[in-house]
Write a structure and sequence with these properties.
alpha+beta, Fructose-1,6-Bisphosphatase, Chain A, domain 1, D-Maltodextrin-Binding Protein, domain 2, about 25% strand, globular
Amino acid sequence: MREVAAQVILPRFGRLSSDDVHEKAPGDIVTAADREAEVLLTAGLTDLLPGSRVVGEEAVAADSSLLAHVGDAGPVWLVDPVDGTANFAAGLEPFAVMVALLRDGETVAAWILDPVGGVAMVAERGGGAFVDGVRVHAPAAGRPARELRGPTFGRHQPADVRAGIDAAAGTVGEILPGHFCAGYEYPAIVRDEQQFVFFWRTLPWDHAPGALFLTEAGGVAWRLDGAAYAPTDGRRGLLVAQNPDVWHTVRTTLLASLSASI
């Protein structure tokens, strides 16, 4: 991941031309760095683990049928070559490189790299979460709703969902604007910069790495019905929080109007 970042991502940061940026879907952009990084990561990861396959964000954008392989038996790598592409394309931080290893559809290891800062976040199922080799833990204490802060990312939400959250915004301490980079949002919960995040879209390469990192640090990544996040679950709506107490507080205040079936 560091090699790929140094080779094709960082040299383009703040230096992209108009020919390097394209719209792959309405409101969703991709850069030459995303595409080239995914090709290099795919080659390197399959060399590391012969017999594995890669499901990458850009490959799925080109062929949506590849998404079905997330639940394949055996080892599958999930790759987000540049998480936070809009930030990257604008010459802004944060952005990240993210990789997760799945076995039979379950996330067993995760890596999140901040290419600019050089900080690496790593997690292994049952083995803990680490930042540059130092084990980290999310705050374990509950807090009253008025002390809780976090973003809810309303851009992709249906109007009724967004309206319900807006109406309940005063039940928590602050709704933050967010950084539009899952590779930043999950570690920020562990660092106590924010105590929760509500995501609407839950594409696996965006969430498998961060969800494992957070849960191994003691936090939770649960659907609105309380089911733990799984990369093979394509439903909308995911509430992540420092600990179960914070999750339940946000669920019963800010998100009380939302159906558990979402």
